[in-house]
């Protein structure tokens, strides 16, 4: 008998599959503190949650029998994935079941914002008949900027067209062809900021999306814009938004999510007349809750019964014999993928994986999964992509995967390479495991290098002229950026060259811009590999 603990409000109908299963017993205990969960989790094989329960490492350590954590929804930012993976606990989510519901909530918020419905309601039920203060705006003929064109963003775009809106879409995976299919104009964040009358965000919260609309964007944003966030708190800088509204730049905002949930009573959104809020209700419909609970219950049963399953967010199942040969290459694969994703500009259309040397005789499919994970995680968020779901995600986003194998490995026992083909360019990174030295990046584009793939790196392309290294070093030094390692690569004396610097901390954006402005510098890009 497997014991399942449901610790958040989850649809009864959705989990009827579990309730009726003869090998499952279910306990529902919602609203427990971490201490209370730690006390009881030891007897359970599975934990079923939404976003309220924070599944911490402490809870997992106490969950000695815990085999699976099911998230009835999309975001798994409330679950410590690393801790789960370390313990072999499979984390599954239900990414498709609440798409439409959240999209519809976005429209509810957009229309409530355009027509001041919450504010007008409050006055009316308070006994006032105020028809002057709440003159709204139409959606028709307005420009809607959608940042994040995944499941929810694409549905929002489709419905916006029915309202007669022009849709500008931005997503690192949005190609010209897909944009055309969706009837959306492919745009940059900058285009959206400058042109949109309404902006809605539908990305995960990642280091890249955090404050993607912040102080800097508000300084250029179209006057009178209205902003909606039904994705994750923190994508829009909350304080900068309040300032922009108070300065008369932004006309209003509608937020379902907060940087800290629940927000404190003093949170400026809660008393602002131009900001409307809901308490993370995006996924809260009868239908969505049934859908996500059914999805996650089905998978949970498969996992507990040892059957194949989908949508595992964390655990890569690799056969033992293959694992022993390939495992050392998995971290290198993720880092090569991530490195390539960080240097390539434009939506990725194709990932070409090269495995040469002894690896040519091994089933390298699991390694490919890790490389694709590295590429996709840079944009989709490292909590959403893993070696189990990376190929599926690449497929659903129309990214083609090609694998080339060869016994010739340029003097290395094994060489792994990743080439990304985007709308704009083709970029290659290769690496190997060197005896006694560990993982190394051995090639960037056409240049041979020897770089440890870790920490903060600065990739500079420049003209091979005397003095350039000194100028870069002086500029970084004067900005308190310490250079730990340096590699220079070139094909021809005096020709195009690259420099890869390992630096002790993240380099501020303005310093990178100054580096890029140096004489004989072509580009400067920071790469983070963790
Ligand atoms: N308010 C609520 O109750 C709910 C919130 N959500 C949240 O909504 C968000 C979107 O969910 P889905 O559409 O299902 O996810 P998805 O994974 O299908 O779409 C996210 C998209 O964001 C894109 N993206 C990543 N970085 C980006 C960047 N820097 N700029 C622009 N786009 C970027 C990705 O390429 C991807 O296409 C997630 O954060 C999810 O947790 C989802 C359901 C309910
Ligand atoms: O699915 C998601 O990402 C959500 O944010 C929904 O959260 P919830 O299940 O309503 O607590």
TrEMBL record:
Q: What is this protein's name?
A: D-3-phosphoglycerate dehydrogenase
Cite the SUPFAM superfamilies for this sequence: ACT-like, Formate/glycerate dehydrogenase catalytic domain-like, NAD(P)-binding Rossmann-fold domains, Serine metabolism enzymes domain
Please verify whether the record's keywords include NAD. Answer: yes
The protein's job, in short, is:
Catalyzes the reversible oxidation of 3-phospho-D-glycerate to 3-phosphonooxypyruvate, the first step of the phosphorylated L-serine biosynthesis pathway. Also catalyzes the reversible oxidation of 2-hydroxyglutarate to 2-oxoglutarate.
Pfam family, any one? PGDH_inter
Copy the pathway line from the protein's UniProt record: Amino-acid biosynthesis; L-serine biosynthesis; L-serine from 3-phospho-D-glycerate: step 1/3
Species this chain originates from = Cohnella fermenti
Q: Where is the signal peptide?
A: none
Q: Name one GO biological process term.
A: L-serine biosynthetic process
Keywords tagged on the record: Amino-acid biosynthesis, NAD, Oxidoreductase, Serine biosynthesis
- Asked if NAD is a keyword of the record, the answer is yes
GO-annotated molecular function: NAD binding; phosphoglycerate dehydrogenase activity
């Amino acid at each position: 008998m497997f014991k399942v603990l449901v610790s958040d409000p989850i649809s009864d109908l959705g989990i009827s599959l579990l309730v009726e299963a003869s090998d499952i017993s279910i306990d529902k205990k919602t609203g427990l503190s971490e201490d209370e969960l730690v006390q009881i989790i030891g007897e359970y094989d599975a934990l079923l949650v939404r976003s309220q329960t924070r599944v911490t490492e402490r809870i997992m350590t106490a969950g000695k029998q815990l085999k699976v954590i099911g998230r009835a929804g999309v975001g798994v930012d409330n679950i410590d994935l690393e801790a789960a993976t370390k313990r072999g606990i499979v984390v599954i989510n239900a990414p498709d079941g609440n798409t439409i519901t959240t999209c519809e909530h976005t429209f509810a918020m957009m229309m409530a914002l355009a027509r001041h419905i919450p504010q007008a309601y409050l006055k009316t039920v308070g006994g006032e008949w105020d028809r002057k203060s709440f003159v709204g705006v139409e959606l028709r003929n307005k420009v809607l900027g959608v940042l994040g064109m995944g499941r929810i963003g694409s549905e929002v775009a489709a419905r916006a067209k029915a309202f007669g809106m022009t849709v500008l879409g931005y997503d690192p995976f949005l190609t010209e062809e897909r944009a055309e299919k969706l009837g959306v104009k492919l745009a940059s964040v900058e285009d959206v900021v400058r042109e949109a009358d309404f902006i809605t965000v539908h990305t995960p919260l990642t280091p890249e999306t955090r404050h993607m609309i912040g102080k800097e964007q508000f300084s250029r944003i179209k006057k009178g814009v209205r902003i909606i966030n039904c994705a994750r708190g923190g994508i829009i800088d909350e304080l900068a938004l309040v300032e922009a509204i108070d300065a008369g730049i932004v006309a209003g905002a509608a937020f379902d999510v907060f940087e800290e949930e629940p927000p404190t009573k003093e949170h400026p959104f809660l008393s602002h007349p131009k900001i409307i809020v809901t308490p993370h209700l995006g996924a809260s419909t009868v239908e969505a809750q049934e859908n996500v609970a059914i999805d996650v219950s089905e998978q949970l049963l498969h996992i507990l019964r040892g059957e194949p399953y989908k949508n595992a967010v964390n655990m890569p199942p690799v056969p033992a014999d293959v694992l022993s040969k390939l495992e050392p290459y998995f971290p290198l694969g993720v880092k090569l993928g991530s490195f390539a994703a960080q240097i390539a500009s434009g939506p990725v259309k194709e990932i070409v994986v090269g495995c040469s040397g002894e690896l040519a005789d091994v089933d390298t499919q699991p390694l490919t999964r890790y490389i694709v994970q590295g590429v996709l995680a840079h944009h989709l968020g490292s909590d959403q992509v893993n070696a189990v779901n990376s190929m599926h995600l690449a497929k659903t986003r129309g990214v083609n995967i090609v694998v080339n194998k060869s016994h010739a490995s340029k003097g290395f026992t094994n060489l792994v390479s990743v080439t990304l083909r985007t709308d704009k360019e083709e970029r290659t990174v290769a690496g190997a495991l060197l005896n006694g030295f560990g993982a190394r990046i051995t090639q960037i584009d056409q240049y041979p290098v020897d770089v440890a793939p870790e920490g903060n790196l600065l990739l500079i392309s420049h003209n091979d002229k005397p003095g350039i290294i000194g100028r870069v070093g002086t500029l970084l030094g004067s900005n308190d950026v310490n250079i730990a390692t340096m590699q220079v690569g070139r094909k021809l004396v005096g020709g195009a060259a690259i420099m890869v610097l390992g630096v002790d901390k993240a380099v501020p954006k303005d310093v990178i811009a100054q580096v890029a402005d140096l004489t004989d510098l072509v580009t400067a890009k920071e790469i983070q590999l963790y």
